[in-house]
Every structure is written in C-alpha cells, then in structure tokens.
Amino acid sequence: EACSDPGCTDPSHNHSSQKSTSTTNLGIRNFVYKADRPFNLGKLLNVLNTWPVPIKEELDLGQLAEAAEQGCTMDEDGNEQKSPFVGVLRSKGFCWMAPTRWTGEKDDAWRHNTAMYWSHAGKHFGISTAGKWWGSISKEEMKSYFGNNKKEYERILQEDFVTEEFGDRRQEIVFIGVNINEEEITKALDDCLCNDEDMEVYRRQLGTAIEA
Which spans in the chain are helix H? Predict the structure, then answer.
C-alpha cells in the first residue's frame, strides 16, 4: 500500500503500519490511574524523589523496554533499586492533594478546593495548579457555567463526580510507556493516598475550617 503522508518522498511504504508494528513489538501501552482519595503530600514526594530520570536526551526504546522488564534504576550512590516507573515515557492528568497545614502561617488549606495538573515527559516533571474543582461550588452555580450545554454538565456529574462527599476531587492520571506494569504503578501510587486515619483528620480539619 502506498504511503499517504504528503511530506514523504518515498511512496513505496506505509508509515501507519510500520508504526503499529514497532510500538507493538516494544510493548508501548497506556492506562489511567484513578482513585477517590487525596494524596498524602509527604508520601507522594518520597515516591517522586526516586522517580527514574533518563540521562540521555534521546531515548532508546529497545533499551528502555529491557529496563522496564527489570524494573530497576540507580540511586545517587549507584545502588540498584527497583522502581515501577522505569519505562514510563509520559504521564499527565489531574490530581488531588491533601493540605498539610489547614490554619496558621503558611497554611495550604487551598489544596482542598484546588485541582492540580500532573505533567511528565522524559526529563521534565511538574505538578501545577489547574483551577478549582467543580465540587468546590454548588451544583446550581456550576450549572450556570454551561449555559445551554446541558450534556456536558450532566457528563461531568456522571463521570467526574466520583463521590457524593467530595464531588469531582480525584486522581486521574494517564501513564504511557514501554512494558509498564499497571499493577505495580497502581500499588505505588495507592500507597501515597491518605489512609483511613489521614481521612479522619482531613474531615475533622475540613469541618473546623467550614465552621470558622
């Protein structure tokens, strides 16, 4: 089949079939990590501080596939340590962080209502603010933002509002990589979520903040 790419000077091949074969052979896949609890910031930072950072500007996907199968990276002292994130090429999405200090100097209670955007590609990793969660306002006020687009309003309520208590506050991060292990990545991130004791503190502090 002739190549349909208008920028290609060799019409004797087809890019799409070649790309499909190569990505399949290299084990490139993706999945969406989802959770309905906030991240404990301290736990998450511990994981992010050990995130394997590529040392080359250009990645060899073949070598990366082998590394991902081993699941290993090197720490600062050159010691081998296992990391489920070896092989991750790109990750992005929305995340929810629990406040670490609800009142007083340098409080970060704003985290309760603020959606964070997780963005990672190669050597670049960042988590930045991405506006307010819809759950931070009433549904009636939220509805006014959609005008006549009732379908989108209803879609968000149905798909994004994952709990009655916290609305659309959630973790929803897409991972794309070579031979990545969904189960291991999910467990690593689940371990960073607030546990039952953390959530009790969260609810208590939130109640105090609302009453103040």
Answer: 15-26, 41-48, 61-70, 139-144, 150-159, 182-190, 196-211
Residue 114's φ and ψ, nearest 5 degrees, are -105, 125
- Cα of first residue to Cα of last residue in the chain, in angstroms, is 69
What totals of helices (H) and strands (E) does the chain contain, helices first?
A: 7, 7
Amino acid at 52: P
Give pTM, 2 decimals. 0.76
| Angstrom distance (rounded) from CA 110 to CA 169 | 13
Digit-coded pLDDT (tens) for 35-94: 999 999 999 999 988 888 654 444 444 544 444 454 455 455 555 567 889 889 999 999
Specify which residues 197 forms β-bridges with.
none
Phi, psi angle pair for 190, to nearest 5°:
-60, -35
Label residue 48 exposed, middle or buried (CB < 10 Å: 0-12, 13-18, 19+). middle
